[in-house]
Amino acid sequence: MRNELGEKDMLPESFKNGDSSCKPIVLVAEDHPTNQELVRNQLEYLGFDCQIANNGNEALCIFNERIHCLLITDCNMPVMDGYTLARGIRVLTRGGNHFPILATTASIKAEEQQKCKDAGIDECLLKPLSLSALAQALNKWLPHYQDLSDQDSVLVSENDDWSTLLNFLGEYPSFVGLINGFIEVSRSDITRIEKLNFEDSQSIIEGLHHLRGGLRIFRLTELSARSARLEQQLMQGIASFKLDDFVYFLTDVRNMLVRMSSLLE
């Protein structure tokens, strides 16, 4: 679909006219498998279809192939980050209808928000993305679709007790796969980290960062903070690295995964 200037018009006529009989498609650029499943389940629960891309380059290719109503992108991804992706989409949609771009980030400090704004991103959402925050953002940037404010009554409480989250997810079967995926990915992360040579500190940092991404989704703040401290120690040099803390951390994460798995049985 092209406008009179020849640019690609990314909003279908049925969507612009307020027809919600056809589900709009949200493009999601996210490299972490658990985050992918979280956003997918949230969007489906709110009545949207979605397409998942593992990085910005993949998202840009998908964007050119289908009509989407909105992009949700992680800021930091391999191959192409969210900032570069947003700039690319702004070039492709120049002169057409405004295409909403939302970014998910671990920090919403002023400098991060400015960086997003400079890239053409409309709004920053804090990770881990809550259903409430997502619903509010979709209401704001897709006003022609439907009012999603009534979804707030089933939201997960904003606390650090992951068992509360599990109880909630247990009531909604479509979310149970998210937990199983988190367990599987986290166990793979631990196995991969344990096989690394300690001289390859950068790979260990990347492995811990990936593991921490899943921990943050379930608001496991104590374990997430311990992972961040280990990453910081490695950044300062291997001499600052506390091996005992590293071993205890991986053991505690593994035990937590066993407990989480048992609650699903």
UniProtKB/TrEMBL annotation:
<keyword id="KW-0902">Two-component regulatory system</keyword>
<dbReference type="Pfam" id="PF01627">
    <property type="entry name" value="Hpt"/>
</dbReference>
<keyword id="KW-0597">Phosphoprotein</keyword>
<dbReference type="Pfam" id="PF00072">
    <property type="entry name" value="Response_reg"/>
</dbReference>
<dbReference type="InterPro" id="IPR001789">
    <property type="entry name" value="Sig_transdc_resp-reg_receiver"/>
</dbReference>
<protein>
    <submittedName>
        <fullName>Response regulator</fullName>
    </submittedName>
</protein>
<dbReference type="GO" id="GO:0005524">
    <property type="term" value="F:ATP binding"/>
</dbReference>
<dbReference type="InterPro" id="IPR011006">
    <property type="entry name" value="CheY-like_superfamily"/>
</dbReference>
<feature type="domain" description="Response regulatory">
    <location>
        <begin position="25"/>
        <end position="142"/>
    </location>
</feature>
<dbReference type="GO" id="GO:0005886">
    <property type="term" value="C:plasma membrane"/>
</dbReference>
<dbReference type="InterPro" id="IPR036641">
    <property type="entry name" value="HPT_dom_sf"/>
</dbReference>
<dbReference type="GO" id="GO:0004672">
    <property type="term" value="F:protein kinase activity"/>
</dbReference>
<dbReference type="GO" id="GO:0000160">
    <property type="term" value="P:phosphorelay signal transduction system"/>
</dbReference>
<feature type="modified residue" description="4-aspartylphosphate">
    <location>
        <position position="74"/>
    </location>
</feature>
<dbReference type="InterPro" id="IPR008207">
    <property type="entry name" value="Sig_transdc_His_kin_Hpt_dom"/>
</dbReference>
